[in-house]
């Protein structure tokens, strides 16, 4: 893969990441609140309405700045590394090039690429979650929440050092790698099945790309959502232990039942349809624009 290919992948991933936040941030805020404060809201609709009544659109887009940073950083690194990993997997499997790889090979490439994107994603997602659900946490502790990206970041570094910005990194990796194995595998499999007769996957139109992205996104979240629930709780509340996340997951299961590990899944699945579709539409068409 040439350096220009890598830069194109990074640019396409960056634009796609920014578009995803603009489309899906309100429902992502609802998801975070439902994950971290089970029982506080009756359902997604009530959480959405209450947040809008108390904080307006600003509340629904709480944490947007770090969310954009997280999404741009994640997707620029993810897609740049995905292109590189595709070339490596193609060489290992004897495929002529990435376009000739099957869905399983693309799934392996996506899984490997997500390890690198997890490292840049974790700090920004940590700040985002604290801004999204910080008000509820503060009220549960009898104090007032006054947060901004600068203040939250400053407090983390002051209390826990730079390493504190990577709270939840192990769980981020544990979520991302199986997620993107499913994501890219399903995305490429659906595109393969919907491609025009006698043409390649790159010739799929808008509708096929939308369907493939939506299908990949829904499977991604369904498979790893319990890990994301526990990760959100650990990143929000500094009092929770960061080691032994499987133990934390079992504690949530024993105390609150299996449904707690899927709290917030409904708005996530609703969000991931347009978000995943936008992600791949922007990515694919940006690549077509810059590719010779």
TrEMBL record:
GO MF annotation terms: L-ornithine transmembrane transporter activity
Compartment(s) of residence: Mitochondrion membrane
GO annotation, biological process: mitochondrial L-ornithine transmembrane transport
Membrane topology category: Multi-pass membrane protein
Transport listed as a keyword: yes
Keywords, comma-separated and alphabetical: Membrane, Mitochondrion, Repeat, Transmembrane, Transmembrane helix, Transport
Solcar repeat locations: 4-88, 101-193, 204-289
Keyword 4Fe-4S part of the UniProt annotation: no
Primary location group: mitochondrion
TM annotation in the entry: none
Pfam families assigned to the protein according to its UniProt record, in alphabetical order: Mito_carr
Name listed for the protein in its UniProt record: Mitochondrial ornithine transporter 1
Lineage: Eukaryota, Metazoa, Ecdysozoa, Arthropoda, Hexapoda
């Amino acid at each position: 893969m040439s350096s220009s290919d890598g830069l194109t992948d990074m640019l396409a991933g960056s634009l796609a990441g920014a578009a995803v936040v603009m489309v899906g941030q309100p429902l992502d805020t609802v998801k975070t609140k439902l994950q971290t404060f089970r029982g506080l809201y009756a359902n997604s609709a009530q959480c959405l309405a209450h947040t809008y009544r108390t904080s307006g659109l600003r509340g629904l887009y709480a944490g947007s700045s770090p969310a954009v940073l997280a999404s741009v950083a994640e997707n620029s690194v993810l897609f740049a590394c995905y292109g590189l990993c595709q070339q490596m997997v193609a060489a290992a499997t004897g495929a002529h090039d990435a376009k000739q790889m099957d869905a399983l090979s693309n799934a392996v490439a996506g899984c490997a690429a997500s390890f690198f994107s997890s490292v840049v994603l974790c700090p920004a997602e940590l700040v985002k979650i604290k801004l999204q659900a910080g008000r509820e946490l503060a009220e549960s502790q009898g104090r007032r929440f006054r947060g901004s990206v600068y203040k939250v970041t400053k407090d983390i570094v002051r209390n826990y050092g730079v390493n504190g910005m990577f709270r939840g990194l192990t769980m981020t990796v544990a979520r991302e790698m199986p997620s993107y194995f499913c994501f890219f595998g399903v995305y490429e499999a659906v595109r393969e099945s919907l491609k025009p007769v006698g043409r390649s996957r790159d010739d799929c139109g808008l509708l096929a790309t939308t369907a493939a992205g939506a299908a990949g996104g829904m499977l991604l979240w369904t498979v790893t959502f319990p890990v994301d629930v526990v990760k959100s709780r650990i990143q929000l509340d500094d009092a929770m232990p960061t080691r032994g996340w499987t133990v934390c997951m079992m504690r949530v299961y024993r105390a609150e039942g299996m449904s707690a590990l899927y709290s917030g899944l409904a708005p996530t699945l609703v969000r991931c349809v347009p978000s995943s579709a936008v992600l791949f539409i922007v990515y694919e068409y940006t690549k077509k624009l810059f590719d010779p």
